[in-house]
Design a protein that fits this description.
By secondary structure, the chain is α+β, with helices and mostly antiparallel strands. It has four helices and seven strands. It has a single domain, classed as Aminopeptidase (3-Layer(aba) Sandwich). Helices cover 28% and strands 36% of the residues. The chain is globular and about 40 Å long. 26% of the residues are buried. Bound molecules: coenzyme A (COA).
Protein backbone atom coordinates (compact mmCIF):
# COMPACT_ATOMS: atom_id res chain seq x y z
CA UNK A 1 0.00 0.00 0.00
CA UNK A 2 1.35 3.38 -1.00
CA UNK A 3 1.63 6.03 1.68
CA UNK A 4 3.57 9.30 1.79
CA UNK A 5 5.85 7.81 4.47
CA UNK A 6 6.96 5.04 2.09
CA UNK A 7 8.11 7.64 -0.45
CA UNK A 8 11.24 9.73 -0.63
CA UNK A 9 12.94 12.20 -2.93
CA UNK A 10 16.34 11.59 -4.51
CA UNK A 11 18.20 13.29 -7.32
CA UNK A 12 17.03 12.26 -10.79
CA UNK A 13 19.43 10.06 -12.75
CA UNK A 14 19.66 9.07 -16.39
CA UNK A 15 18.41 5.55 -15.65
CA UNK A 16 15.13 7.05 -14.36
CA UNK A 17 14.27 8.60 -17.73
CA UNK A 18 12.03 5.83 -19.14
CA UNK A 19 9.77 6.00 -16.07
CA UNK A 20 9.75 9.78 -16.03
CA UNK A 21 8.91 10.05 -19.72
CA UNK A 22 5.96 7.71 -19.24
CA UNK A 23 4.61 9.75 -16.31
CA UNK A 24 5.18 12.99 -18.25
CA UNK A 25 3.28 11.60 -21.25
CA UNK A 26 0.37 10.55 -19.04
CA UNK A 27 0.28 13.89 -17.24
CA UNK A 28 0.60 16.67 -19.81
CA UNK A 29 -0.79 17.36 -23.30
CA UNK A 30 2.57 18.90 -24.31
CA UNK A 31 5.06 16.63 -22.60
CA UNK A 32 8.68 17.61 -22.16
CA UNK A 33 11.08 15.79 -24.47
CA UNK A 34 13.75 13.48 -23.17
CA UNK A 35 16.38 16.10 -24.00
CA UNK A 36 14.75 18.54 -21.58
CA UNK A 37 14.99 16.07 -18.69
CA UNK A 38 18.57 15.25 -19.67
CA UNK A 39 19.36 18.94 -19.60
CA UNK A 40 17.98 19.20 -16.06
CA UNK A 41 20.04 16.21 -14.90
CA UNK A 42 23.21 17.69 -16.38
CA UNK A 43 22.60 21.24 -15.15
CA UNK A 44 24.23 20.71 -11.79
CA UNK A 45 24.58 24.39 -10.94
CA UNK A 46 21.00 25.55 -11.35
CA UNK A 47 18.64 22.61 -11.62
CA UNK A 48 17.47 20.35 -8.81
CA UNK A 49 15.53 17.50 -10.43
CA UNK A 50 14.21 14.86 -8.01
CA UNK A 51 12.29 11.68 -8.50
CA UNK A 52 9.59 10.67 -6.07
CA UNK A 53 10.43 7.05 -5.33
CA UNK A 54 8.81 4.36 -3.24
CA UNK A 55 10.52 2.00 -0.81
CA UNK A 56 11.68 -0.73 -0.80
CA UNK A 57 12.37 -1.11 -4.53
CA UNK A 58 12.99 2.50 -5.54
CA UNK A 59 9.92 2.49 -7.78
CA UNK A 60 9.63 5.83 -9.59
CA UNK A 61 6.12 7.25 -9.15
CA UNK A 62 6.72 10.92 -9.87
CA UNK A 63 9.16 13.80 -10.01
CA UNK A 64 9.57 17.42 -9.02
CA UNK A 65 12.10 19.81 -10.53
CA UNK A 66 13.12 23.24 -9.33
CA UNK A 67 15.69 25.81 -10.38
CA UNK A 68 17.62 27.87 -7.88
CA UNK A 69 19.89 30.74 -8.81
CA UNK A 70 20.93 33.79 -6.81
CA UNK A 71 18.20 33.29 -4.19
CA UNK A 72 15.48 32.93 -6.86
CA UNK A 73 13.62 29.63 -7.12
CA UNK A 74 11.13 28.24 -9.61
CA UNK A 75 9.32 24.90 -9.68
CA UNK A 76 9.47 23.96 -13.36
CA UNK A 77 7.89 20.50 -13.47
CA UNK A 78 5.94 18.32 -11.03
CA UNK A 79 3.85 15.20 -11.62
CA UNK A 80 2.69 11.98 -10.01
CA UNK A 81 1.83 8.86 -11.96
CA UNK A 82 -2.00 8.86 -12.32
CA UNK A 83 -2.24 5.56 -10.43
CA UNK A 84 -0.74 7.17 -7.34
CA UNK A 85 -2.55 10.49 -7.17
CA UNK A 86 -4.85 11.53 -4.37
CA UNK A 87 -2.89 9.66 -1.69
CA UNK A 88 -1.00 12.58 -0.18
CA UNK A 89 2.26 11.78 -1.97
CA UNK A 90 2.32 14.91 -4.12
CA UNK A 91 1.65 17.10 -1.11
CA UNK A 92 4.43 15.41 0.83
CA UNK A 93 6.87 15.92 -2.07
CA UNK A 94 5.88 19.57 -2.40
CA UNK A 95 6.39 20.15 1.34
CA UNK A 96 9.86 18.58 1.24
CA UNK A 97 10.76 20.62 -1.82
CA UNK A 98 9.57 23.90 -0.27
CA UNK A 99 11.63 23.04 2.81
CA UNK A 100 14.72 22.44 0.68
CA UNK A 101 14.22 25.67 -1.29
CA UNK A 102 13.78 27.66 1.87
CA UNK A 103 16.88 26.07 3.44
CA UNK A 104 18.91 27.19 0.41
CA UNK A 105 18.05 30.79 1.23
CA UNK A 106 15.24 31.63 -1.20
CA UNK A 107 12.86 34.41 -0.22
CA UNK A 108 10.19 33.04 -2.51
CA UNK A 109 9.44 30.43 -5.15
CA UNK A 110 7.33 30.81 -8.30
CA UNK A 111 5.60 28.42 -10.68
CA UNK A 112 3.15 28.44 -13.58
CA UNK A 113 -0.10 26.51 -13.66
CA UNK A 114 -3.11 26.20 -15.92
CA UNK A 115 -6.26 27.90 -14.51
CA UNK A 116 -8.14 24.68 -15.35
CA UNK A 117 -5.79 22.50 -13.25
CA UNK A 118 -7.99 22.31 -10.17
CA UNK A 119 -5.97 19.65 -8.26
CA UNK A 120 -2.68 21.54 -8.63
CA UNK A 121 -4.25 24.92 -7.87
CA UNK A 122 -5.87 23.54 -4.74
CA UNK A 123 -2.57 22.04 -3.61
CA UNK A 124 -0.66 25.27 -4.24
CA UNK A 125 -3.25 27.39 -2.41
CA UNK A 126 -3.13 24.97 0.49
CA UNK A 127 0.63 25.56 0.73
CA UNK A 128 0.58 29.32 0.70
CA UNK A 129 0.96 30.15 -2.98
CA UNK A 130 -0.82 33.30 -4.12
CA UNK A 131 -1.42 34.75 -7.56
CA UNK A 132 1.40 36.96 -8.87
CA UNK A 133 0.04 37.47 -12.38
CA UNK A 134 -0.87 35.80 -15.64
CA UNK A 135 1.11 35.00 -18.76
CA UNK A 136 -1.17 35.32 -21.75
CA UNK A 137 -1.18 32.51 -24.28
CA UNK A 138 1.43 30.55 -22.35
CA UNK A 139 -0.02 27.08 -22.94
CA UNK A 140 -1.07 25.29 -26.12
CA UNK A 141 -3.19 22.18 -26.71
CA UNK A 142 -5.54 23.46 -25.37
CA UNK A 143 -4.59 27.13 -25.44
CA UNK A 144 -4.71 28.71 -22.03
CA UNK A 145 -3.09 31.54 -20.10
CA UNK A 146 -0.76 30.60 -17.26
CA UNK A 147 -1.34 31.65 -13.70
CA UNK A 148 1.99 32.66 -12.18
CA UNK A 149 1.91 31.81 -8.50
CA UNK A 150 4.34 32.74 -5.77
CA UNK A 151 4.99 31.40 -2.31
CA UNK A 152 6.81 33.80 0.01
CA UNK A 153 8.96 32.53 2.85
CA UNK A 154 8.99 34.49 6.07
CA UNK A 155 12.49 35.76 6.81
CA UNK A 156 14.41 33.62 9.28
CA UNK A 157 15.01 35.21 12.69
CA UNK A 158 18.00 37.51 12.55
CA UNK A 159 17.55 38.43 8.88
C1 LIG B 1 -0.86 18.06 -8.84
C2 LIG B 1 -0.44 16.66 -8.36
C3 LIG B 1 1.09 16.58 -8.37
C4 LIG B 1 -0.95 16.49 -6.91
O1 LIG B 1 -0.42 15.27 -6.40
P1 LIG B 1 -1.31 14.23 -5.55
O2 LIG B 1 -0.41 13.26 -4.91
O3 LIG B 1 -2.41 13.70 -6.42
O4 LIG B 1 -1.98 15.19 -4.46
P2 LIG B 1 -2.27 14.83 -2.93
O5 LIG B 1 -2.97 13.53 -2.84
O6 LIG B 1 -1.01 14.98 -2.15
O7 LIG B 1 -3.32 15.98 -2.53
C5 LIG B 1 -2.92 17.12 -1.81
C6 LIG B 1 -3.85 18.28 -2.11
O8 LIG B 1 -3.91 18.53 -3.51
C7 LIG B 1 -5.24 18.93 -3.86
N1 LIG B 1 -5.85 17.89 -4.71
C8 LIG B 1 -5.30 16.71 -5.08
N2 LIG B 1 -6.13 16.07 -5.93
C9 LIG B 1 -7.21 16.85 -6.10
C10 LIG B 1 -8.40 16.74 -6.88
N3 LIG B 1 -8.64 15.66 -7.66
N4 LIG B 1 -9.29 17.76 -6.83
C11 LIG B 1 -9.06 18.86 -6.09
N5 LIG B 1 -7.94 19.02 -5.30
C12 LIG B 1 -7.04 18.03 -5.33
C13 LIG B 1 -6.00 19.05 -2.55
O9 LIG B 1 -5.76 20.37 -2.05
C14 LIG B 1 -5.28 18.04 -1.69
O10 LIG B 1 -5.41 18.32 -0.32
P3 LIG B 1 -6.65 17.62 0.52
O11 LIG B 1 -6.41 16.15 0.41
O12 LIG B 1 -6.47 18.15 1.90
O13 LIG B 1 -7.90 18.08 -0.18
C15 LIG B 1 -1.08 15.54 -9.24
O14 LIG B 1 -2.46 15.72 -9.29
C16 LIG B 1 -0.53 15.46 -10.68
O15 LIG B 1 0.48 14.83 -10.94
N6 LIG B 1 -1.26 16.11 -11.62
C17 LIG B 1 -0.86 16.06 -13.06
C18 LIG B 1 0.37 16.89 -13.32
C19 LIG B 1 0.20 18.32 -12.87
O16 LIG B 1 -0.84 18.91 -13.06
N7 LIG B 1 1.27 18.89 -12.26
C20 LIG B 1 1.28 20.27 -11.80
C21 LIG B 1 1.57 21.16 -12.92
S1 LIG B 1 1.59 22.89 -12.39
Amino acid sequence: MLSPSSCYLRRMQERDLPFILEIERLSFPNPWHESSFRGEIENLHISYPSVIAQRPHDRIIGYIIFWYLADKAQISNFALHPDFRGLGVGESALKKTLGAIRAMGARHVVLEVRPSNTPALSLYHKHGFVLLGTQQGYYQNPPEDALVMIRYFAPAQGD
